[in-house]
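Quarterly update, task 2.4: zinc ion-bound model.
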Amino acid sequence: MKITIYAILLLSTLTACAQKPSTGVPTNGNPSNFDLSAYPKASDTVQKSDAAWRAMLSPAAYDVLRNAGTEQPFTGALLNEHEHGIFTCAACGNPLFSSDTKFESGTGWPSFWAPIEPGRVIQKTDNTFGMSRTEILCARCGSHLGHVFDDGPQPTGLRYCMNSVALGFDKK
Ligand SMILES: [Zn+2]
């Protein structure tokens, strides 16, 4: 009997951990209503050759943005950025996250609970390193930004775990 209960508990734990972050939950990722009209639209896509990206980006930014690398935790310049403003894609300037949704995750990477606007980032299943994770890409230029996990705070329960070097910041 005990074993059965234990097995059920274990199974439900495993199932909970395997759940993919939910999408499509209507959430306002722009509580301050930052005006995004001066920014390019996500549909205004950017395509450059690998050589052009290499010439434009620092080696560290290139490794993350164009090679899906991960920066060392607790090293990013924007990890402790607490000013009011908009976090953008370091490769193309696409507005990605409002400072209103940034929170202290303790992971060592800048963390947000929602993108600033639907369609600014895209999700992709990432099965590298023997894990099933959900990769987050810039919808405008396709650059790798980080991953999303379902252990974030309310209202979404999501944690967009971003590489600082993949982001820019526009203070408002
Ligand atoms: Zn971009």
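Highlight for this quarter: The longest strand covers residues 121-126.
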